[in-house]
Amino acid sequence: MSSKFPDHFLWGGAVAANQVEGAYQTDGKGLSTSDLQPQGIFGAITPRVDGDSGIKDVAIDFYHRYPQDIALFAEMGFKCLRTSIAWTRIFPQGDEDVPNEAGLAFYDQLFDEMAKYGIQPLITLSHYEMPYGLVKNYGGWGNRKTIEFFERYARTVFERYKHKVKHWLTFNEINMSLHAPFTGVGLKDDSNKSEIYQAIHHQLVASAKAVKACHEIVPGGKIGNMLLGGILYPLSCKPEDVLETQRQNRDWLFFGDVQARGGYPAYMQRFFRENNIQVEITAEDRQTLRETVDFISFSYYMSGCVTTDEQQNNTARANILNMVPNPHLASSEWGWQIDPVGLRYLLNVLYDRYQKPLFIVENGLGAKDRIEADGSINDDYRINYLNDHLVQVAEAIDDGVEVMGYTSWGPIDLVSASKAEMSKRYGFIYVDRDDTGKGSLERRRKKSFYWYRDVIQSNGNSLKDKA
Predict the structure, then answer these.
(1) Structure pTM?
(2) Distance between CA atoms of residues 340 and 388, nearest Å
(3) Distance (Å, rounded) from C-alpha 345 to C-alpha 280?
(4) From CA 293, how far away is CA 43, in angstroms rounded?
(5) If pLDDT is split at 50, 70 and 90, which confidence band does 311 have?
(6) Which one of 40, 92, 204, 217 is most buried, by most CB atoms within 10 A?
(7) Which of 298, 391, 392 is nearest to 342 (CA)?
(8) 333 tagged catalytic
């Protein structure tokens, strides 16, 4: 296909500190909420004791092996790498007055290594982890003081890296706090709706404060929010299904509305009122929320359906959310439905709604890869998945949607967020490690490595439109 991607399109990949770095207590790092979830988001919260271990403690040892990995990303031609800063490397307990210099120095080295190859960092301030000290001592995001601690952290890293990092994100998949409160806002999973929405409100205020700080501190800096793009379709054209679909889509679009439009939408006021949800929102909060993001970023793995017919309301688990399956779509090995056209639809929905640049910062296929006798890994299923989604991105660009870039999820195999598995592989680069933590950690290029290199080199011209 002839390329529809703009000349300065940011091609790359995305990872998260807690899923790749390891070194979980190295150089003064404190315990994060992720460290207390050794079996992933859906596992039990487990206190750490001396001598215990979890797969994320080492992960893929990116902390020590990043020069090798960045070189491999550069070989593919990456223009951009999305990763996160581990908050607990900078403020181990979260409430310190002075940051941890060893943690700051690590990210200096990482960003310098990326700069050697002309790879732009896209940095998430908080990606599914926060200092456990803030949970234990303050009640996590349920406590308004956490806003102050987050702003201190954000301003610290903006000042330190203002000449190295120009693209920032506040909270990863911020809407997922509704479905996994401990991971999202440091609350118990059985917290009531008032408690969860109050914590979410504090996080939204903190996000706006980070936006303001970025604009003040980082010359030419751009900062976006990040949504879990859980787009839903009505299962039928029955008006009740259409209306319920709108309601459920607003559950997650609300987070974009506040961060991109600068205030709470009227439909949320009604939702709070009808569900007896009490959220303390001060006049100062409302003023703070007017500081809006520069662009919208989101993850997209699948779509789902909505029905008001309880007889058809069987659900499929997908990236935190439960969705009613679409009978017209195939599914991955993990039951996530594959809907490339849904990505074009979502891009149009978000652009129509916000009229701000969009950035696809997660999209990929988790699968079990097999090493052949000759050492090759022929992951054509991954190539097909990504090709079909990128063709739809090109169509959205042709629709008039402004898309800044695309960072595939897990360009290198990493520990999955949901269940802390290595066997659920996303990467163009294979990492020799299994679900029990055994393996040499050797890196190996898959067939998709060369395919993605060609896509980037051709600026999308090598994609195959199967229409």
Answers:
(1) 0.96
(2) 6
(3) 35
(4) 33
(5) confident
(6) 204
(7) 392
(8) no
Of 464, 459, 342, 457, which is closest to residue 391 (Cα–Cα)?
A: 464
Do the beta carbons of residue 126 and residue 173 sit within 8 Å? Answer: no
Q: How far apart are CA 452 and CA 467, in angstroms?
A: 21
Lowest mean pLDDT among 159-168, 300-309, 440-449: 300-309
In the chain, the N- to C-terminal Cα span, in Å, equals 11
Residue 362 appears among annotated catalytic residues: yes
For residue 50, the tally of other CB atoms under 10 A from its CB is 4
pLDDT in tens, 440-459: 999 999 999 999 999 999 99
Strand residues in 112-187 grouped as ranges (E): 120-126, 167-171
- Give the C-alpha distances (Å, rounded to integers) separating 74 from 70, 163, 167, 449: 6, 21, 19, 11
**Of residues 195, 362, 395, 421, which has the active-site annotation?**
362
φ/ψ of 375, rounded to 5, equals 90, -5
- Among candidates 322, 139, 159, 301, which has minimal Cα distance to 229? 301
CA distances from 402 to 244, 339, 416, 418 (A): 29, 21, 30, 31
Q: What are phi and psi of 345, to 5 degrees?
A: -60, -45
**Residue that has been written with the tokens 């920032």 in this structure:** 168
Question: Is 22:60 a contact under the CB 8 Å cutoff?
Answer: yes
Closest C-alpha among 75, 65, 83 to residue 13: 83
User: Is residue 315's pLDDT more than 70?
Assistant: no
Please pick, among 129, 173, 395, 421, the residue that the annotation labels catalytic: 173
Q: How far apart, in whole angstroms, are the C-alpha atoms of residue 178 and residue 180?
A: 6
CA distances from 116 to 11, 71, 73, 122, 248 (A): 17, 9, 12, 16, 45
